[in-house]
């Protein structure tokens, strides 16, 4: 038996086990949105605040706030690595190379900085707020959520013996395998991982993603996590989120501008990305009002992401709207377009299953993973 | 990331991964029988032959015969360690210290030797035979069975990827845990591990035994494996096997001696162990004929081990026989005595469950573990 003295000593002596170890360990859409913000709103200031939507879960009692502070501070000290920047520069995203401009990558390397944060506990809840340039606050969203989630995991696992931990992960792997066996039989399956913000831990997330790649193969279209895509040669998936229409609405100066802000965003987005990555996210202020007021040119977008409505209801509503606007084209049609650009945008129900899988695969004696945390502008 | 260079190099370079790493890695009853043989039949010669009772399993095709030869040769080179001999000398077995005589332990240290073996493959079956002094052939039984079993396991696992192996063991642990959860609820449970000869592998055996100790606690009365008992501070369980009446029968010179040999053995055993460890094993040539011809003094034995009959039928038969011989004592009675000496002899149905658990806990794509191998005189 060869003892690895260095590892034993190292394991005894570490002061902190960093949760976020790369600035790429975020959803890919944050990077696309970051370039958009850098390009169009470089001086705009924004505040991100954590809201725990499941108030009954006293996150401030569960998570050690000083440990969270250390994690956030460690994240703030991170810088993009050369290899990560070169990957962003040279890799193909949605079939296109050069989606990130050289000037943006220069800025990312030398000037990008995460904002400061304010952290405290009030009434058993974490109070966490980020203030500063929008480009410096926006990126906190995923780092903060995955760090809080993983600290909650660590708290739940703290009292388990080595044997109990072993059984816990054995059961998690067994459940994961059973779910993948079921998925394997689904015809025309197209599934993408969007687990980062709700994951049990980075290592388990990585295990699940690698397992899916190895098990369901071509049906696994990729991951929203840029670091896992970079590290494991996967497709990075995602376009943009509600953050953009919310910010545009906040920047509107009157009611007319407010109503139009959701379409002004689309114009700005298609300018910024030369007519690529055109996936609508129409539900920020309600899909029905969005479609009612949308200009004709919006029918040229490739598809929609259904995020908060029954997928069939929202799909039918979108198709009917396309037909009313004479956009029921023969070249693919609405059904085809709903798959999203290059067929890589997973239908909402699959995304939901994956999120559910990430959350449900592992549960501890003290209950499920946190799912009620959210960061909103 | 600290790389353990020494371990990586070592793992790449090993020529053989020995299955049996201690001469104690055998059933405890073999050691009790060995002392009995040493004491009463030091010059008797015996032949042990492997018989695969499930002829449809072509063990000679599955197991690499040269690897088996290397394993057997490595086992033959093993010697008892001082700490193992001191444990045999000083430990309490069935509540009694000094069950092994100093002269026997001296002999074990300096003179004990495993016999030579003959190994070949014929018609797809392993041909394995041990010839020599009974003391040198008897001990091969368990080493040979567990080595063949583990080589069969290795053959089954050879084509699995690292991920598939990980899932395999995760599922095995999950099943093990589910079975232990079920066992935990059984009232007055008394369960002993007798898995050595039929185990998946040494390491899995050790894992199962430690898990049972940690999970079902006091209901887990011990293990038949002397090495696991020594290493993990458990009770070593077992008394004797069919080997003894079979050998005694073979040594008989006429029919009268043959019929009496099964009782002569009991006399010799109780002399050898000063009236301790008196567990009958009456089914070698049939329990009914055994009880019909048994002298009155046999009722003084503490209990019986039911090995091949329905436990209730055999129990009722034994109780009726005790009553006919006026041995229906008030001080405990037959029911009490059936639990065996010191309550550590597990009822047959529990033993069977455990054997089943050891076999069923893990199964591979190519089927269950071998259960049709046996070594008989």
3D architecture notes:
The structure is a homodimer of 377-residue chains. In chain A, α5 runs antiparallel to α6. Chain A has helices spanning 5-13, 28-40, 59-62, 65-76, 82-90, 102-110, 134-138, 140-157, 162-184, 202-216, 226-232, 243-251, 255-272, 287-293, 311-324, 333-337, 348-360; strands spanning 45-52, 92-93, 96-97, 117-122, 125-133, 191-193, 220-223, 279-280, 303-304, 373-376. Chain A is globular and about 75 Å long. With 377 residues, chain A is an alpha/beta fold. The model of chain A is unreliable at 329-377 (pLDDT under 50). The first copy, chain A, has 2 domains: 10-255, Alpha-Beta Barrel (nicotinate phosphoribosyltransferase), CATH 3.20.140; 256-376, no CATH class. Chain A has 17 helices and 10 strands. The interface between A and B is medium-sized, with 19 and 19 residues.
State the share of residues found in helices of chain A, binned by percent: 40-55%
Strand line-up of the largest beta sheet of chain A: 4-5-1-10
Instruction: Tell me the major beta sheet of chain A.
Output: 4 strands, antiparallel
CATH topology of the largest domain in chain A: nicotinate phosphoribosyltransferase
Q: Please report the distance between the alpha carbons of the first and last residues of chain A.
A: 55 Å
Question: Which value, in Å, is the CA radius of gyration of chain A?
Answer: 21 Å
Number-wise, the strands of chain A total 10
- Oligomer type: homodimer
Number of helical segments with 4 or more residues of chain A:
17
CATH homologous superfamily annotation of the largest domain in chain A: nicotinate phosphoribosyltransferase
Q: List unreliable stretches of 5+ residues of chain A.
A: 329-377
- Average of per-residue pLDDT values of chain A: 87
CATH class of the largest domain in chain A: Alpha Beta
Return the structural class of chain A: alpha/beta
Number of domains of chain A: 2
The name of the CATH architecture of the largest domain in chain A is: Alpha-Beta Barrel
Helix-strand pattern of chain A: HHEHHHEEHEEHHHEHEHHHEHEHHHE
Beta-strand residue percentage of chain A: 5-15%
**Overall geometric form of chain A:** globular
């Amino acid at each position: 038996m060869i003892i690895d003295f260095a590892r034993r000593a190292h394991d005894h002596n570490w002061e902190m086990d960093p949760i976020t170890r790369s600035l790429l360990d975020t959803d890919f859409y944050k990077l696309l949105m970051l370039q958009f913000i850098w390009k169009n709103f470089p001086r705009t200031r924004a505040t991100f605040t954590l809201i725990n939507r499941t108030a009954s879960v006293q996150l401030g009692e569960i998570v050690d706030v000083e440990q969270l502070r250390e994690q956030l501070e460690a994240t703030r000290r991170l810088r993009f690595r050369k290899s990560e920047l070169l990957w962003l520069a040279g890799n193909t995203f949605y079939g296109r190379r050069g989606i990130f401009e050289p000037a943006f990558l220069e800025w990312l390397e030398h000037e990008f900085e995460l904002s400061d944060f304010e952290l405290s506990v009030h009434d058993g809840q974490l109070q966490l707020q980020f203030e500063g340039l929008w480009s410096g606050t926006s990126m906190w969203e995923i780092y903060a959520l995955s760090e809080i989630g993983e600290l909650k995991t660590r708290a739940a696992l703290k009292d388990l013996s080595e044997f109990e931990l072993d059984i816990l992960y054995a059961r998690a792997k067994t459940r994961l395998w059973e779910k993948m066996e079921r998925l394997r039989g689904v015809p025309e399956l197209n599934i993408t991982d969007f687990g980062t913000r709700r994951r049990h831990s980075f290592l388990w997330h990585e295990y699940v993603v690698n397992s899916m790649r190895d098990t369901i193969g071509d049906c696994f279209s990729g991951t929203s996590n840029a670091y896992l895509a970079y590290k494991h040669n996967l497709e990075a998936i995602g376009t943009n989120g509600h953050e953009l229409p919310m910010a545009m609405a906040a920047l509107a100066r009157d009611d007319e501008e407010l109503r139009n802000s959701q379409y002004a965003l689309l114009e700005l987005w298609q300018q910024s990305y030369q007519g690529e990555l055109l996936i609508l996210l129409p539900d920020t202020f309600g899909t029905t009002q969005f479609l009612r007021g949308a200009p004709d040119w919006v029918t040229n977008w490739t598809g929609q992401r259904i995020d908060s409505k029954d997928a069939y209801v929202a799909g039918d509503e979108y198709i009917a709207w396309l037909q009313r606007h004479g956009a029921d084209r023969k070249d693919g049609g609405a059904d085809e377009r709903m798959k999203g650009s290059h067929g890589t945008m997973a239908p909402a129900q699959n995304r939901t299953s994956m999120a559910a899988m990430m959350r449900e695969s592992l549960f501890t004696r003290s209950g499920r993973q946190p799912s009620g945390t959210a960061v909103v502008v």
